[in-house]
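User: quick one, fold this
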Amino acid sequence: MPDQYTRGSRPRSRPAIEGGTASEIARSAEEAIRTGRFSPGDRLPTIRSLAASLGVSPVTVASAYRELRRRGVVAAAGRRGTRVTERPPLTLPGSPITGVPAGARDLATGNPDPDLLPSLATALATIDPTPRLYGSPTKLESLVELARNQFEADGLPAPRVALAGGALDGIERVLAAHLRPGDTVAVEDPGYARVFDLLRGTGYELEGFGGDDSGPVPDELERALRRGARAAILTPRAQNPTGAALDERRARDLRALLGSRPDVLVVEDDHAGAIAGAPAFTTCQQSRPRFAIVRSVSKALGPDLRVALISGDAETIARVEGRQLLGTGWVSAILQQLVVRLWSDPGVSELLERAASTYGTRRSALLEALSSRGIAARGRSGLNVWIPVPEEAGAVSALLQRGWAVAAGERWRLGRSVALPINAARLRTPPAIRVTAATLLPEEAGPFAADLADALATGTRTYSA
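Assistant:
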């Protein structure tokens, strides 16, 4: 069974981690991870056992592990020990994302349907070939104007607009504009796994909050803020992995809650944009001191177009752009021109409408097929459906044997690798699988649901034996 689907650690003889100081131990452990002797999800030796084998103080090993945690290389998982994070910020042997096994139907990787992405041929033919030099404007005003018009048409505040190289790049830049490593960020649980990886890799602490089909539950978010979160990342629609989407009432309740906490940086990840299949609502207001709405084009126009538009308050946008000037400088003008051409093409606008409708039809067909089999699932918007199961690895393995590749939900469940306080046990998200329905045809929904029902029934008999 491929490890990227079960995410379980494998029994193996553990390599010795060397060193006599905290920095030496940390470097040795990092090398062991980088060279593949430890894999993502694997457990490191306990502090006491490693200290005994190295002949050093447990305080020294604890300091080494603390440094590795600060850099997002490992995470404390409570009784499950200290484990390598699923995507440590290191170059690892092989690709961190591997392909679906040959012959399996790919419902795991989260991609949009290639047939619903616009062709770039016509847009590429209209690109201005004039070389762009240092000192040129960093933003195309035509793109900024289109973005501002889109935000305002959706009723979203757009006082200032910046560009980034994709949604995660935008989120990272916005957080860095106000936070420091060690600060706590409130995140959805279950939530986007790559956001978890990014935050851990940049040294932030994570505090989870729960949600339902209408988005974050206000009481849950308030609890996370009371526990010291200085920022909150929310997905207003097409939430990955559950498909949750804000409605008008929930957005209003969250605005009221966040209005009482003007010190909190609010970041909305509107990664799906026009193809989300749900209207745009926001928790942000024009008067909010610190906010950013990040809208990527990757799901609608294609993942290779690494462009995201950031609407935010003047201070946040100024800091984001100022820091960008010190590094990459700007988002490629070629990519900016491509987005302008595509967004200005009536044919592309029609395609995006068709994509949103098609994704909605496919989600609904899968949800109905699952419901007919007595299987509860979530998927109000976006590309994915979230299906609670008694045990993830068994369900994933059984489906793969039947020809379906799906993703185990533990990557999206914060409780998997974060030690929660005893009184927060209720927040641990139960097991589930994530199914990307973007390419699942309606006529395939019934067979998939039947195979899942059979897998769960077989698993139930197996687990109770």
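User: anything notable?
Assistant: The two ends are 22 Å apart (CA to CA).
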